[in-house]
Amino acid sequence: MPSREAPGPSQAKSIWKLGGLSAWQLARNVLSDIAANNFFGRASELAFDFLFALFPLLLFMLTLIGLFTSRRSDLQGTLLAYFADFLPPTAFALLNTTANELAANASGGKLTFGIVLALWLASGGMTSMISALNLAHRVSEARSWIKVRAIALALTLLIAVFLLAALFLVLVSGRAVDWLGAEIGLAPEVVAVWKALQWPAAIVFLVVAYSLIYYCGPNLKDRRWHWITPGSAFGVLLWLAASLGLRTYLRFFNSYSTTYGSLGAVMILLLWLYVSGLSFLIGGEINAEIERAASGPS
Predict the structure, then answer these.
(1) What is the DSSP letter of 184?
(2) Would you say 166 and 202 are in contact if contact means Cβ atoms under 8 Å apart?
(3) What are the pLDDT digits (tens) for 252-269?
(4) What pLDDT was estimated at residue 264?
């Protein structure tokens, strides 16, 4: 099946008008396609791929952090702190231990063959996401394997670099505000507000990262870029709510470690990755439904 063209400029403007669909119609269509495409099963596949992609990606990012040797410990701590806010404690302990072991082997700040291999393995999860987006848009993959893999590698590298840049800016801006507060006597409220804006900035980054994958991933032609789409906004909000809900639930009803011992942390990490994959798929399906509605009958 050939790749389907995206809506033209005038139709693309309707993306926030939901392509002419009501919220109820959109929700009904999305739920119908989630069942038809077996997205709950696809989310399990993504979770498995994410598990194998997560640690190679961390290795690549920790090696990039090594380039900033004077800020290495701060950047690494900030990176892991973001995971700590969303992951259940036992899963974060597993991630933190593994990340520290990887950091010990990522010294020197050089992008060696091993790091390139890590990036290649990490892009495997991105390849699975591209395949799932093709399913949501009801298109077959007409691009060559090399081109798809190149897109996956580029997206993985771009998002990793953007994330590290955001972390570095957060670290630098936080220290700069502390210094200004001490030197020129900024009110504590001003410093607190500035630091509070770091979280909205992180959420905006996630939304843009989702939009970037939704834009570049599926096999569509004549696409139009949107910084924020309904699918990316809903997908990130769903991921935030599900992650915090899972974290809260396991805080009070954590029976995994008791039942499964040391494997409990791995199972909880897989469950979180499953939630992440499902929220990504739902966001992609929302965008696909809006684009189909905006395009009119095919």
Answers:
(1) S
(2) yes
(3) 776 666 666 667 777 888
(4) 72
* Amino acid, single-letter form, for residue 88: P
DSSP 26: H
Distance CA 133, CA 213 (A): 9
Query: How many C-beta atoms lie closer than 10 Å to residue 247's C-beta?
Result: 19
Helix or strand or coil: residue 21?
coil
CA distance linking residue 194 with residue 56, whole number of Å: 33
Can you tell me which residue has the tokens 């970037």? Answer: 212
Listed residue (3, 11, 38, 30) closest to 224, CA to CA: 11
What is the spatial distance between Cα 174 and Cα 71, in angstroms, rounded to a whole number? 13
- List the structure tokens of 276: 């992440």
Phi, psi of 257, rounded to the nearest 5 degrees: -65, -35
Query: CA-to-CA distance for 223 and 212, rounded, in angstroms?
Result: 12
Q: What is the pLDDT of residues 282-296, one digit of tens each?
A: 999 999 999 888 876
pLDDT in tens, 155-176: 988 887 776 666 666 665 666 5
Distance CA 64, CA 29 (A): 42
Q: What's the rounded mean pLDDT across residues 200-221? A: 86
pTM score of the predicted model: 0.76
Number of helices (H), then strands (E), belonging to the chain: the values are 12, 0
Phi and psi at 221, nearest 5°, equal: -115, 160
- Which percentage of the chain shows pLDDT scores above 90? 18
Per the CB < 8 A criterion, the answer to whether 285 and 28 are in contact is no
8 Å CB contact between 21 and 29: yes
Separation of alpha carbons 154 and 271, rounded Å: 27
Consecutive H or E run containing 297: none
